[in-house]
């Protein structure tokens, strides 16, 4: 995990100097705001991240031509924050603005276009539009297969994304097929405590849970949690995911006391880190309600 507090301290010092020494629409000031926004995004403080990313974007809109790649990046960053906050319509709006610029500025096989397709696919997945998600993920995967070596982590992420959609559609054998492809690359290319491995363990664990292999699911969710605990700040919203899934496994095993314990841990994190209207808070409330009903 990066030392975000020290990074923020240095970035704030730079910002103060830039604000005193430079005109308000200077590109270096935009870069400074962008750096600060990135730290807040990585620590899960999405409202602060949005505040600084929007300051960046206003400068870029005044100072740069409308198809400049930095404007695409800025739109993408704002889209990522809205996606994390659960505001999927706004996320899609900014991802599509970013994509339009990239389509004009980049060759059709550029890796950045693939990442853009993946971002749009992710929003459709989060909104439950799985066929649309699969369409965009497939476009991304085609570009990545053409432009990257077979063991590149971006390809693993792409396999993982497609696996998630099949998992959500209930096609567990297809989901496992894509997750295993992702896993082979991740194990070769990433250190054992990388956050992408945590996401993978979480995703494949959910498949085993749905298939009724609860011991395997528990093993994978615990691996996910161990990585996230080591690499994320203690109040990061992503820590809620393994808690939530551990709760679901114990609920499926009819161990309702332990299920409730994990769901309440997930809820405590989400209450601290997510907006009140975020769908993940609703999911956890529903999970807790199910346990009380079943007890």
TrEMBL record:
TPR repeats: 30-63, 72-105, 114-147, 156-189, 198-231, 240-273
Superkingdom as given in the UniProt entry: Eukaryota
Record's keyword annotation contains DNA damage: no
Assigned keywords, A-Z: Repeat, TPR repeat
InterPro entries xrefs: TPR-like_helical_dom_sf, TPR_rpt
SMART domains recorded: TPR
Pfam families hit by this protein: TPR_12
UniProt keyword Repeat present: yes
PANTHER family: AAA+ ATPASE DOMAIN-CONTAINING PROTEIN (PTHR45641:SF1), TETRATRICOPEPTIDE REPEAT PROTEIN (AFU_ORTHOLOGUE AFUA_6G03870) (PTHR45641)
The protein's name in its UniProt record: Kinesin light chain
């Amino acid at each position: 995990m990066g030392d975000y507090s020290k990074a923020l301290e240095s970035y704030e010092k730079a910002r103060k100097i830039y604000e005193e020494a430079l005109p308000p629409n200077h590109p270096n000031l935009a870069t400074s705001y962008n750096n600060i926004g990135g730290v807040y995004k990585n620590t899960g403080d999405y409202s602060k991240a949005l505040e600084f990313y929007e300051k960046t974007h206003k400068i870029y809109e005044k100072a740069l031509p409308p198809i400049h790649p930095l404007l695409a990046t800025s739109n993408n960053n704002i889209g990522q924050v809205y996606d994390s906050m659960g505001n999927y319509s706004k996320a899609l709006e900014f991802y599509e603005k970013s994509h339009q610029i990239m389509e004009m500025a980049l060759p059709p096989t550029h890796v950045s276009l693939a990442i853009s397709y993946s971002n749009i696919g992710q929003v459709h997945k989060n909104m439950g539009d799985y066929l649309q998600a699969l369409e965009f993920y497939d476009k991304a995967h085609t570009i990545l297969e053409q432009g990257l070596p077979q063991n590149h982590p971006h390809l693993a992420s792409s396999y993982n994304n497609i696996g998630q959609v099949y998992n959500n559609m209930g096609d567990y054998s297809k989901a496992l097929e894509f997750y295993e492809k992702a896993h082979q690359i991740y194990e070769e290319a990433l250190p054992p405590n990388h956050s992408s491995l945590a996401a993978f363990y979480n995703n494949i664990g959910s498949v085993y849970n749905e298939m009724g292999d609860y011991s395997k699911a528990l093993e994978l969710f615990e691996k996910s949690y161990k990585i996230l605990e080591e690499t994320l700040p203690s109040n990061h919203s992503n820590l809620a995911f393994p808690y939530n899934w551990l709760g679901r496994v114990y609920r499926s095993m009819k161990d309702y006391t332990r299920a409730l314990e994990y769901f309440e841990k997930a809820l405590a994190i989400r209450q601290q880190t997510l907006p009140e209207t975020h769908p993940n808070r609703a999911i956890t409330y529903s999970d807790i309600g199910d346990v009380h009903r079943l007890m």
